[in-house]
Amino acid sequence: MTDSILVVDDELSMREFLQIMLQKQGYQVATASQGEEALALLDRKNFDLVICDILMPRVDGMQVLRQVKEADPDAQVVMITAFASTESAVEAMKLGAYDYITKPFKVDEIKLVIANALERSRLVRENVRLRQELKVLYSFENLVGASPPMLEVYELIRQVAPTRSNILISGESGTGKELVAKAIHFLSPRKEKPFITVNCGAIPGELMESELFGHKKGAFTGAYQHKKGLFEIADQGTVFLDEIGELPPPIQVKLLRAIQDKIFKAVGGLEDVSVDVRVIAATNRNLEAAVAQGQFREDLYYRLNVISLRVPPLRERKEDIPLLAQHFLDQYSKELGKSVKKISRETEALLQAYNYPGNVRELENIIERAVALEKSDAILPETLPEFLRHPPESPAALAEVGFPEQGLSLDVTMEDIERRLLTEALRRTGGVKKDAAELLGISFRSFRYRLAKLGLASAEEE
């Protein structure tokens, strides 16, 4: 969906300049020459962003800002003026403006401010959508499964959700750790506040501090304005730190202080920022081993692991496979506009026989693919992937080697086993490296390193 922006300025040349520039970037743009006109437009339509001059006759920019924020506290407003003063800037920020820009401004600067403001708007909309639409979806009753291991998970969710304690969720990739985290949040007293997800393995280490704790204008090259971090945005709510084991050591120190003291400093900032945030972390790694090896701080581990919750892999709750398969069948039949209603007995037997190294996520992918390809009203074996209909060698078989009497080279043998497992993971995931890494229970970075080490990386990766 195209973002919509309202430009409010009594200077025609400025309105036209901003309108042309923003339309070239693909935004929907409306303009108003005075405050009254802007408020009338805002009564009729919601905008993702308002860019408003401060000094205007009759209804000035501050009045527009005040009324916009009264009507919608989450609205994003950027103020611009040719007559800057510290007092007006402070007043605008106190009233809730996203940022304050002085004319004349650099085009790149205002483009960046606008992009960041719209990103904030999208984030706010997403949290509103979660609060309004996903309360039911993420209640524990809608986590699919009736096996004893899952009943234990439900009971623990019910017990821990009302508390303030931090939680560490462990489990293999694809088991549904984020779904469990959301269930805890939406069953807690914080359910009306933000739920913010941070994938610690996907954000470069040099950007992680700014992402988590924000930065001040001028803190580093490209920091054109103040940016709130995700911890500040999540105040009174929950931060979900996925793949916490991938967090770089320097950031582990700063995270420890934020959790322990509930304060932090933005990058380039001098003042402490106080927040009330519940932290739920998740990992598919053995963090205790990482602590023993000096890869993860012990004090941070104990701060995160106040309550531990393990999500079982799908192979440990195979009785849930029919329930999950039917759940995904109903979901994707509706989403894809198909009339597939059931799963044949032969297909169900094949689904039950598989061990799902990718867990629930892999089962979901299999059912979505089958629904998309199926032409009848039932999923038949013919629409399942080849590896389900004709199972390849198991990982144990792949790893099986003979031990010749004259001995062998352990390094060469282990490399051969590793190469075969990497190749099999890529085959199963259609060459999608991130998914292959998850199948093997290693990070994407580690997977790429191993491919390069064994000469399996593509030319562009090298």
Give the arrangement of secondary structure elements.
Elements: E1 4-8, H1 12-24, E2 28-32, H2 35-44, E3 49-53, H3 61-71, E4 77-81, H4 86-94, E5 99-102, H5 107-133, H6 148-160, E6 167-170, H7 177-186, E7 195-199, H8 205-213, H9 230-233, E8 238-242, H10 249-261, E9 263-264, E10 273-274, E11 278-283, H11 287-292, H12 298-304, E12 307-310, H13 321-335, E13 342-343, H14 345-353, H15 359-373, E14 378-379, H16 386-389, H17 395-399, H18 410-428, H19 433-439, H20 444-453
Parallel strand pairs: 1-2, 1-3, 3-4, 4-5, 6-11, 6-12, 7-8, 8-11, 13-14
Antiparallel strand pairs: 9-10
Helix pairs in contact: 2-3, 10-12, 13-15, 18-19, 19-20
Walk me through what this model shows.
This protein has 462 residues and is α/β, with parallel strands linked by helices. The chain folds into 4 domains: 4-131, 3-Layer(aba) Sandwich (Rossmann fold), CATH 3.40.50.2300; 134-312, 3-Layer(aba) Sandwich (Rossmann fold); 315-389, Helicase, Ruva Protein, domain 3, CATH 1.10.8.60; 395-453, Arc Repressor Mutant, subunit A, CATH 1.10.10. Helix content is 47%, strand content 12%. It contains 20 helices and 14 strands. The chain has helices at 12-24, 35-44, 61-71, 86-94, 107-133, 148-160, 177-186, 205-213, 230-233, 249-261, 287-292, 298-304, 321-335, 345-353, 359-373, 386-389, 395-399, 410-428, 433-439, 444-453; strands spanning 4-8, 28-32, 49-53, 77-81, 99-102, 167-170, 195-199, 238-242, 263-264, 273-274, 278-283, 307-310, 342-343, 378-379. Strands 2-1-3-4-5 form a 5-stranded parallel β-sheet, with helices on both faces. The chain has a 5-stranded parallel β-sheet with strand order 7-8-11-6-12. Helix 2 packs parallel to helix 3 and helix 19 packs across helix 20 (444-453). The longest helix has 27 residues, at 107-133. It is globular. The model is unreliable at 133-138 (pLDDT under 50).
